[in-house]
User: Fold this.
Amino acid sequence: MQLTIERTKQPKAKPTDESKLGFGQIFTDHMFMMDYTEGQGWHDPRIVPYAPLQMDPSAMVLHYGQSIFEGLKAYRKPDGSVQMFRPMDNLKRFNRSAARLCIPPIDTDFVLECMKTLVDIEKDWVPHNPGTSLYIRPTAIAMDATLGVHVAKHYVFFIILSPVGAYYAEGLKPVRIFVENDYVRSVRGGMGFAKTAGNYAASLIAEHAAQDHGCAQVLWLDGVERKYIEEVGSMNIFFKINGELITPPLLGSILGGITRDSVLKLAPTLGYPVREERLTIEDVFNAHANGTLEEVFGTGTAAVISPVGALVWGEKEIAINGGEMGPAAQKIYDTLTGIQFGTQEDPMGWTLSL
Ligand code: COI
Assistant:
């Protein structure tokens, strides 16, 4: 396939105050697109000016949610050049999500090349302020104009780019998390491991209860026994108990985060042993009661390493590490972001320069 490039004639002004970027508010001048038609496969790959999509009101994605996406970032290095973090791992996960949602897989090598070209064209949009980056959002949606519930025959794949700051308004200040008892996010056999729109739609209702308790996010429990920790709304979660980092294993209902995987690989090199193990909410509150719960933090591309300062579970509330970011979370944050921003060596070979 031959990538075509059409440059915008009306480039937008770039944000002047990078301290006010927020998350996913601003989009760059160009996007990547390609189409899929049954019998023809993915075709017509192109970089075009960023613009609204044209779709029929009966487009299947709008009715039945056949939609998947990814999230990764490009970072500005101290020498001014730009690099991406583990992009191939995101594209491989994209294809795992695609398989679950019956969306045809993409050619990951080809799409990575197109993504690099797109980010290169938009490299002036990669912000410079510490902690800021260019968020990359690959997405695929079903486009068939029909109301029958079946696997679509037409899809569009696109990549849009957004200069971003911190995902949480709190930044690196620890967030309060609400343990959800009534609703569940997913069950094994469902779509929990896939990055698909419906998982996020299903999570929204719990936001209200969380907000009523002054919490930024929801901690999901498993859908069967309603006691095992799963993940937080936009991140995976780690508990430091008695010197060890513990995170729930990937049993099908939670997202296999790239940042989660990076922490599992980095933390032991920093002196923190890790374990993937099922943990109940009661285990966590008991560990707090007996003084062995040392730290809790979330991990995600958008959220990076996000310390949890308090957990609210029914009538109970615990403060973690005195509501402060703990030393393990800080060390892992410094090392991970050091690799991502190129201020530190990348012994794992995770970064890809443009
Ligand atoms: C990410 O961390 O990249 C996510 O996709 C989480 C959220 C913004 C949906």
Notes: The CA atoms of residues 126 and 132 lie 8 Å apart.
